[in-house]
Amino acid sequence: MECKNCGSQNVKTKVMWGLFAHPGAVGVNCGKKLTGTTASVYSDLCLDCGEINRIYVDEKDLANIKSQEK
Ligand SMILES: [Zn+2]
Predict the structure, then answer these.
(1) Sequence spans of domains, the chain
(2) Which of 8-12, 20-24, 57-61 has the highest mean pLDDT?
(3) In sequence order, which ranges of 1-70 are alpha helices (DSSP H)?
């Protein structure tokens, strides 16, 4: 993918937010029943200018969120 800010192709995808020792500790709250349930949040980070091009959750977490919306 291409960076929106500088046009560089040097974009690292799926960079996880938060501490690697505690993946998902920082994230979107997706639990209605269990408090503190978070989806892991990722970004695509431009290694040339530092622009964060996307913010998105993992497909599995997205499926969990969808299933709880029913
Ligand atoms: Zn860039």
Answers:
(1) 11-65
(2) 8-12
(3) 59-69
Q: Is the pLDDT of residue 4 over 60?
A: yes
Question: Which residues on neighbouring strands pair with residue 12, listed in sequence order?
Answer: 45
Alpha-carbon span 64 to 59, nearest angstrom: 9
pLDDT digits (tens, 9 = 90+) for 14-40: 988 765 555 544 555 655 555 556 777
For tokens 């892991």, the residue is: 40
Cα 57 to averaged position of ligand 1 atoms, centre (Å): 21
Give the Å distance between the CA of 9 and the centre of ligand 1: 8
User: How far is ligand 1, taken at its centre, from the CA of residue 66, in Å?
Assistant: 32
